[in-house]
Write a structure and sequence with these properties.
It is a single chain. By secondary structure, this protein is α+β, with helices and mostly antiparallel strands. The protein folds into two domains: about 1-75 and about 185-190, 3-Layer(aba) Sandwich (Glutaredoxin); about 85-180, Glutathione S-transferase Yfyf (Class Pi), Chain A, domain 2, CATH 1.20.1050. Helices cover about 55% and strands about 10% of the residues. The protein contains nine helices and five strands; from the N terminus they run βαββαββααααααα. The structure holds glutathione.
Length: about 190
């Protein structure tokens, strides 16, 4: 199995999740500007979408889209998911909220849009983070143990720090807890983020 990732990209969530799950995997960095992988391949040969994350499974199947990759990992390592009749639904609900509302809201920062657009985006991001903060019932996003949704949110926290976006204190504290985990430190170290 091989993860194609880029430093500080949303693929960091999958990187952390694979390490947390103790899965055996290779990893290869992708330059998102040139679309070249570290071994000189064009990422478009691996995934026609030309972006990360892309997870190539042992049978050659390629899984893309963060929600799908994280759900796949949680399916194989249920400790990173959520128990109960609505467990998977709640997990997908959180992952989708992060992907389609929070991740997407960072676009004005990545594309260096106007000050007004960035201010509006920062307000949206803070409001969405507050939604999570108001509903946390344990040390982590969905309870007492970290799920793959925490790792995706963690990447959003790093982005918020990078762009100076204010986020609720409870979510900052969640990020601090996550950043002390061995898997998080290893993934960040490999990606050159420490
Ligand atoms: N819909 C994709 C989007 C993934 C995505 O936004 N990847 C970014 C990094 S965070 C990327 O590779 N961007 C480079 C590009 O689109 O050219 C998903 O949810 O996984």
């Amino acid at each position: 199995m091989k993860l194609y990732y880029a430093p500080l990209a949303c693929s960091l969530a999958d990187h952390i999740a694979l390490l947390e799950a103790g899965m055996q995997f290779e990893r290869e960095q992708v330059d998102l500007r040139t679309k070249r992988t570290a071994t000189g391949r064009d990422i478009t040969e691996i995934t026609g979408k030309s972006y990360v994350p892309a997870l190539v499974l042992d049978d050659g199947e390629v899984v893309t889209e963060n929600i799908a990759v994280l759900d796949w990992i949680a399916g194989r390592y249920p400790a990173l998911g959520l128990e109960g009749p609505l467990g998977r639904t709640r997990l997908l609900e959180a992952l989708t909220f992060i992907s389609t509302e929070i991740h997407r809201a960072f676009k004005p920062f990545w594309h260096n849009r106007s000050v007004a657009e960035k201010a509006h985006a920062a307000e949206t991001i803070n409001r969405h983070m507050q939604y999570f903060s108001d509903r946390m019932r344990g040390d982590y996003l969905l309870g007492d143990h970290p799920s793959v949704a925490d790792f995706y949110l963690f990447v959003m926290l790093l982005w918020a720090q990078r762009f100076g976006v204010t986020i609720p204190e409870e979510i900052v504290a969640l990020g601090d807890r996550l950043s002390r985990r061995a898997a998080v430190r290893e993934a960040m170290s490999v990606e050159g983020l420490l």
